[in-house]
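Hi everyone, sorry if this is the wrong subforum. Our group has a chain we'd like a structural model of before ordering constructs, and none of us has done structure prediction before. Sequence below.
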Amino acid sequence: MSTTPPRHPRTQELHKAHWRKSSYSGGANDCVEIADLGAHAAVRDSKDLSRSPVIIGRSALDNLLRRYLGGETSVA
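Answer:
Right subforum, don't worry. Here is the predicted structure as tokens:
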């Protein structure tokens, strides 16, 4: 098993990524979008696509969502 962390996604991978909008957006451009990049996920503001997306490790995102869906209110 390799201990080398996965490489950070390249810019061209973000341009080709399949972005999904939150189902809570109601079809308007007022929500977040997420793209699955394998070992990473990218999150961006659908109102301002000129800003760079936030890249987060997939395991960290999975942990955040698990805690949120489990009803936890603090991250500490």
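For your construct planning: The chain has a mean pLDDT of 79. The longest helix spans residues 58-69.
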